[in-house]
Every structure is written in structure tokens, then in C-alpha cells.
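user: can you give me the structure for this one chain? C-alpha cells are fine.
assistant: on it. calling the predictor now.
[tool input]
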Amino acid sequence: MKKIKNNVFLMWMAGLLIGVSCTTPTDIQVERETVDLAFPVFTSETSISELIDGGVDSTALVVHSDHEMGLYYETKTHVGVSMPELEDMSLDLNPMTTIPNLPVSGVNIEKAKFDGGTMSFSFRNTQFDKNIKVVLRVNQLSKDGGIFSKTLDLDYTGSFPVTADVAVPLEGYKMDISQSPLQIEYQASFNDGSTASIDEAKMEMKEAEFGWVEGDWGVQSIPVETPDHEIGFFDHYSNGGVVHFANPKLNIIAQNSVGIPSKFVFNGITVNTLGSGEISVFGDFVDDGFSLAYPSIDQLGTYLTSVDEMNKTNSNIVEIFNAQPTDINYDIDFLVSPGGNGTGFIAKDAGVDLTMGVELPFEGTLSDFKVEKSFDVKFTNEYVQAATMKLYAKNQIPLDARIQMYFLDNAGIVLDSLVASNGILAVSSAIVAPSGDVIQAKKWDEEVSIDLDKWSRIKSAVEVKLVTSFTSSSAGQVPVKIKSNQRVELNAGLKLVVQP
């Protein structure tokens, strides 16, 4: 609570001395039965930030360049998509061996790039006492533009078996089986070029890891873990006002690096409220879901951004925020290939960064929002014959203001109020256009007579408490826009008639 010191007594003494010591050039005494004194009691300025203080975390308050204000509460989550795993393989090879189906689940692979693993080959000769050369080739594997090819020599040295082995790291190799399945072929020949046969040929693939995979993924549904989306304003607001936001929004932003047609499906969105318990969100926003832009294979590693908005035209969000929500709970699935066309790619560490932000522009209606301020005072307690409180206000806020002042003693006990307990001093709102924007400040002045009975009660006051209650026009029914540069200025002065 703000306090401002104001030593009224010293000002009164200065005025009193001027009043009783003034003489004319001819030194003729001028006597007065009373002296009028006027001095300020306080100057107050109430801004919008003070009006909403108590319910707003500073991190949630957003002020735009045009001074428009609002609250923003967001929650974030990440949707990860697992890379398919290729099981270890061990095969006996023929001169032409076809692998029609790779041992991998979740996708019909067409193309891929390996990030790790090893492909090993071994050849064994137990019958020919000649040197044999083996040329190995896999047309569906390439690296740096060259087809996978290896040459192995089985050199006879007088004993059997004769073996040759090679282990090839798979990192950096690309696989293209979109036109034909994976085929491993080898040719064995003697030094004279004639064809040789191999007693035993094997291939092993171990710990293969993909960097990216392109293929047909089919329809897949992945549950999305989302934290509760807390809305702190209503839960923590402390000064009793009622606010109705005219244009609340839920913005949803997805940054997607998954190269497959996909969307978010809302199985349900429920909101816990102070006014109506749990409310379900419904409308086209929920029914339609949120389709995502996705990168092509040429945009590998790129995140594409998609944006959608839940608002008063596609949901019951206004009803929800009129019920004072405290948190939102989401039940969401990430649906791959929603239309059944699942051709696309997934890269290592690919996923979707999902941000859901509640935006509450200060556009709407308010009622009974109270702001309290205190000012230190010290009144004289002698010779006062009459007192008048003079008030001047300039209201730039599009809200009506009702003013009351309380006079407190040094124990904090209310001695009296400026006007009767059931009375108010009303300051009209700034002049507002149909759009809700302020077009002109409203000026107001008032004089309140303080009779001697009231003065006898308040003259010992050490503190004045100013209580201002704000309500939008027409009893809170006219939507207005509240901006950061709007404020109410109030000046209070006291005019005393004293007897020297």
C-alpha cells in the first residue's frame, strides 16, 4: 500500500503567520475575524498495472508497442518420434541373394541413411588349391556417390581352409530399395578368369542405426504428454473484482521436423474453473484437430511452423473464461498419416515442439476492481470554523471510478469517511469509441463540505486511505480496451476557515 507524507500543520502555520502579520505601508492594522487557508492533501495517480496488481505475475503481463495489454500463459511439450530399429541379421549368401523384407517394424522402408552399425562378410574355400578373387557388390548401397563394392582375395598357401573377411562400417551409407529390394551379389573367379565356387559365404549386419528413414509409415497414433496449463490470474486475484474477457484465445504453435503428413487430434480438453467446476471445451477447433506443415526430404533438418487458434468463433472459450479458469488439461494424440497416405521420412531426433498459449487481451468488461492507497497527514486541531475537501480528477481509463476516503488514527482505526458510508463520489470513464478505444480523457471536480461534527472526528487523523473502485460503463456491460498508458489522476485539497 502506497503512503505519501504531507505535513499539513506546517503549511497551516505558514499561512496563519502570513494572515496575521500583513500590514499596509501606512502601518494601519488590518484585523480579520477568520482566515481562509487552502493546501493540498495528496496527489494520486492510479495506473492500469496497479488496477490489476495482485492477480498478475509480471512474467504473464504483455504490453505491445501500441500500449495494448494482455495476459499470456503458455505451456510447452515435445513430441518425439522414435526411429525404427533394424534387427541384427545373419545370412548365408548365394552369388545373388535377395532380402525382400528387412527386419524392421513400423515402416515399409524405401530409402534410408545409416548413422552406425557394421556389415560384415566372410568367405571360405575348402576344396580348390588355387587363389580365388571375390568381387562383392550391393547396388542398393552407396556412399559419396559410389556403389558399395569390395574385393577380397582367398590366397591358397598350402592348407585349408582358406578364408577372407571384411567388416564395413555402415555410417554414411545410403540405402535405396524403392525400386528393388536389397540384393547382395558376388562373383568368385580364379586367376585365369574362370568361375570359381565358394564353399561358404556369409553376411552379418549388427547394431545398425539410421540417421533418417523414408518410406510408408501407415497410420500411427502417439499419445502426447502435456503438463497442466495453469492460468494464474483468476486463482490469485485478491481484490474482489469481476472481469469478463471479450476476446480470449488459445494459440497453438507447432514446430515440426517430422517429414510425414500428421496432425494433432484433441480427444478432449477440460478446464478447471472457480465458477463452474470442470468444463469441457467444444467446437470446431476441437473437432477438426490441428494439421501440421511438414518438411520434404530436401528440407531434412528443417522445422516448419504451423499455427492455429481457438477463439470465440470456433469454441466455447468465452464461456470458459467467464467461469474463471485455473488450469487447462489436454488429452492429445499425434496422428501420423491421418488420411492413410503415410509416405514420408523421419530423421534422428525429429519431433514436434508444441506450444499452447492462452492470450487474454484486456478487452472486455470489469466491475468492482478496487485499488487502495494511503497518505500520511497531520491536521490542525484548533480554530477551524469550516472545512471543504476539493477534488479534481482526470480519467484516461475507460472505466467509471467510485471514490471514497477514510480517515484513520494512529492505531489504524477509521474515524470517519469523507462521504456517508452508502455514498460515492463518481468519476465517469474516459470517452470511448464503439471499438472500445479511448478517444478523450474525462475531467471531473467536486467539493465536499465537512461540517464541524465531522471535523471534530477527523482532525486527529494521521492517515487518509483512498479507495477507488473501477467498473466499465453501463454496469460493466460495455466492452472496452485497457492500455498500459492509461491512468487516473486525482488531486485532493483542503480549504479551511480558521480563526486566528
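assistant: here you go. Helices lie at 8-21, 48-51, 232-236, 284-288, 317-322, 452-458, 473-476. The first helix runs from residue 8 to 21.
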